[in-house]
Amino acid sequence: MKSLAFADRNKKEILRDPISFIFCLGFPVAMLAIFRVISYHTGGHWMTMEQLIPGVSVFGLSFVMLFMTLLVAKDRGNSFLTRLYHAPLRTVDFVLGYALPGALIGLVQTFITYAAGALIALVPNGQLTAKGIAVASKVLTSTGAIERVTVLPWGGLFAATLAAIPAVLFFVACGILFGTILGERSAPGVSSAIISAAGLLGGCWMSLELMGSFEKFCRFLPFYPAVRISRAAFALNVADGGDFAVSLLTVLLWTALAATLAVVAFRRTMKGDRR
Fold first, then answer.
1. Which residue intervals of 43-186 are DSSP H helices?
2. How many helices (H) and strands (E) would you count in the chain?
3. Beta-sheet pairing, 132-141 with 127-128
4. Which of 31, 120, 126, 256 is the least crowded, having the fewest Cβ atoms under 10 Å away?
């Protein structure tokens, strides 16, 4: 495919920037280490690792969106795409050329985040078992605090990575869209707003279940359903809450919308720059 050569170039451009490794790989892992310390010392007053790892993983994908946005905006700003528009490439080839490396990096980041999170959960009182990593935590109940042992199943690492594919595609599509319609100066600001929204409206490191109408509102957005999907898959319990299919459909619809808008915006940009 013609888009593969273009995708290879974009992959090298993303990996060439050391900042991408710091944010896409290092930052989620650092967050998990900090949250593990907080979770251990606050007992039932903080989320468990089985909730935090999927949440931080989805939040980390927003940084993939940021680098996709900056890449597309930079290519437009230095006239690279304008020159390339005369090559025998269709709009779909251009979009796929950006989307393929972005999706690959997003999936690799997701798996590394889960694997690192599982290792972090071992410290200080985790144990390796045949089923997975057993983590002891304190849970507050009406009668007081009780100790509960949570098992992070080995298969959950792979199941959660596969379940993250719709969220990966959503953030990649948003990155291409924002990079196409925004300039190099405005793109980081908009991306930062989406990153903040992903963390706050996704319930990545806080519980939304007790927030009533606000939690119901977040169900219609792509961030919270993506986190719910990841948590259910990580626990190997896709029937958790009875709404796995609804959450998956919500993310897929947002992904289709973002991808469609990205293709339309890119096509219009191509026509305008060719004039």
1. 49-77, 80-84, 91-121, 154-163, 165-181
2. 12, 3
3. antiparallel
4. 256
Any bridge partners for residue 139, and if so which?
146
Long-range contacts of 243-249 (CB under 8 A, 24+ apart): 247/219, 248/166
State the pLDDT confidence band at 16, using cuts at 50, 70 and 90.
confident
Q: How are strands ordered across the β-sheet holding 144-153?
A: 127-128, 132-141, 144-153
CB 146 within 8 A of CB 139: yes
* Phi, psi angles (nearest 5°) of residue 243: -130, 25
**Spatial CA neighbour of 118 closest among 132, 108, 102:** 132
Any idea which residue has 């393929």 for tokens?
Answer: 100
Dihedral sign, Cα of residue 84, residue 85, residue 89, residue 95: positive
What's the mean pLDDT when you consider all of the chain?
83
pLDDT tens-digit map of 106-131? 999 999 999 998 888 888 777 888 78
Residue type for position 230: S
10 lies in some domain: yes
Is 134 within a domain? Answer: no
Number of domains comprising the chain = 1
Identify residue 194 by its one-letter amino acid code.
I
Residue 142 lies inside a defined structural domain of this protein: no
Residue 211's pLDDT is: 79
Domain of 172, in residue numbers: 2-127+153-274
Give 224 or 148, the one with higher predicted confidence. 224
Q: Which residues in 169-208 are b (16+ Cβ under 10 Å) and which e?
A: bbbbbbbbbbbbbbebeebeebbeebbeebbebbbbbeeb
* Of 138, 77, 132, 105, the residue nearest 20 (C-alpha): 105
List the Cα angle 188/178/261 in 5-degree steps.
165
The reported pTM is 0.89
